[in-house]
Structures are given as C-alpha cells and as structure tokens.
C-alpha cells in the first residue's frame, strides 16, 4: 500500500480545475433536468396531464408525481452507490448523467391527457422514476469527485462546488420557463413551448459527458483498490458499523431543513404566489431565478467558511436563518408585492439554503469512511429527500388548506424542521480524514 500510493499520484494527469468543472457542469445539468420537472409540476402538468377536474386535486396529483422522484432517489442511491463504491466514481457518473438526460427529453415528447387519456400521467410517473433513480446516484459521486481530489484545507470549498449546480440548475430551469413565457402566449407555451426546455436537455448532457470523460478516477478510490479494501456490500457495512449508522441517522435529520427549504422557496412558492395570491407567473419565475443565482454565489462562500469553522456550524447557521425568518417571510409574501417576494426568496433561498447547501456536501462526505462513502452519503441525502424534499409541496399545500388559506401552519412546520436539523448537523462527527 505504501508503494502504490505514490504511483497513483504520479499517474494522475487530471487537473483540479478539470475536476471542479466536471463536477459543476454535471450537477448543473442533472439539477436543471430535475427542477425543470419541479417548475412544470407547479404550472404546467396539472393542466396537461391530470384532466379537467378540480384544480386543487390536479395540483396535488402533480406534486405527488414530483414526490415520486424523491422516493426513487434512495433506490438510485443504493444502486449507484453500490456501483460507485465497488467499481468507481467516474464510470457511475457517466451512466447517471446519460440516464437523466434521456428521461428528461422523453418527457418533452409525451402526449397530453387530452390526447391519450390516463396513459399520459402513467408515462409521466415512469419517466419521473427513471429521473429519480439517476439523480439518486449522481449527487454522491459528483461530490466525491471534487472532495476526494481536494487539497488539504480546501475540502469544504471543493465539496461546495458541485452544490453550486443546484442553484444554477434551478436558475436555468426557471429562467428558461420565464424566457419562454415572455416570447410566447399562454396557449403556445402550454401547447409546445414548455417541451423545448425538456428536449434541450440532450444538448446539455452531450456537453457534460465530454467533460466528465476527461476526468480520471479519484485518488482515494484508486488507493482503496490498490490496497484491496473495496467493500463487497457497502450498504450492509454502513448499517453494521455503529459510528456510520449513527452518522447516517444524524445526516438524515439534518437533511430535513435543507430539503424542505429548497422545495418551499424554489417549488411550492410558484404555486402559492401564482395560484393562491394571483401574482404574474413570469414575475415570480424571475424572482426565483434571481434567488437561485444568489444561492449559487453563497454556496462556495459557505464551503470556504466551513473549512475555517467546521461544516456543521455553517449548516446550522443556515437552519437558524430559516427558523428566524420563516414567519416574516410568509407575511411578506402575503403582500403580493414582487419586490417583497424577491427579497424573501433572496434571503430564504439565496442565503439560508445557500449556507446549508454549501456546507452539506463535505459534511456528509466526512462522516463516512472511504470504502462506504458513496453509499453512506447517498443514503443520507437521497433517503432524507423523501420527506425533506419530495413531500414538502404536498405537506405545505395540505397545511395551507387546513389553515383556511393562511400560511402559519406551513411556517410552523418549516420552523420545526429548522430546529431539528440544527441539532442534527452539530451532532454528526467526521470518521476519517479524506
């Protein structure tokens, strides 16, 4: 093992810049695909794929389809986490990117409910499941590609780089929809305009694959292979090892506030402001896009800050902003002012979520050993995504209805998530030096 490590380092011709670019481009494309669906779930799919019945029921069904993707993600995390811990990070990431792009483009070609009836939503669900499985394997590998190449003292910054892709992917998804809404009328947008955004994914994926093919396997995994220490069944090893099992529990709880926050201010807010508050769709899409760009700027700063004071503390700071700001945020949304909405989204999506997201990737990587890291962090991120992310629009829509249209029950739910996640982030402990 001592002689293999230097050879591994010498054979590696991949530059850190190429690694970071591959991670960033890859996650941007993957999250563009995933959150393009989220945006469409709020403003397109209820009208095209779920009949002409009650609009509230159609919206709930659409969000249920959105949530199915998050249920599928832990399956993808198990499948591709296993492959990533057994075969390698690089090959796994190439497969996940191609799979997501194909599923997203296929959604753009789906006939509507009016054309083929109930088959339309069934096919939409199937493609959403494929998307979810692929994304379930993407995130952990993209983060590890950056973190396991990172020099000492910069792992937080490197680990945060793929997370920028979430903000950029959301900005691209909502930005494209906003642009299409500006250049065409509602009839054209609902007929074929929204489809352009989905089909364009094929071009983005082709670019991403070219970049990822230029990156070698990570040094950490190659050292593991050289030492013949690759885990045979990573998921079992995670659950058998008490420290890993404990950290899995803490990271699952930490995920609650981060996932709920993103899907409140990036997804649910579209339906709440447009359908409930009757605000112009394009204006809200632009506000979300602005906040997403702010988030993309905050994420690397949070990662670098985590290198100085610890990932858990930075993550907790983002949760505290959510807890303190959520009630005033909903009060400001209720004014119906686009200026107020933009300010709320900049603080809650840009700052609060940006702090959590920027610290999260390296925090989750540090608390699992190399031989089970891909699987462990994928289970934490994707498993937590079921309740923390996928169910959030459904939960908030239900709480809004239960509160007679007032948002205070929904705000209380988010505040609770912030408190629990603050404690969990501070309790997770690193197991191994990366």
Automatic annotation (TrEMBL):
Transmembrane domains' residue ranges: 20-45, 57-81, 93-116, 122-144, 164-184, 196-215, 252-272, 284-302, 314-332, 338-358, 379-402, 408-426
InterPro entries: MFS, MFS_dom, MFS_sugar_transport-like, MFS_trans_sf, Sugar_transporter_CS
Topology versus the membrane: Multi-pass membrane protein
Domain annotation Major facilitator superfamily (MFS) profile: ranges: 19-429
Signal peptide: none
Keywords: Cell membrane, Membrane, Transmembrane, Transmembrane helix, Transport
Compartments where located: Cell membrane
UniProt name for this protein: MFS transporter
Species name: Actinomycetospora lemnae
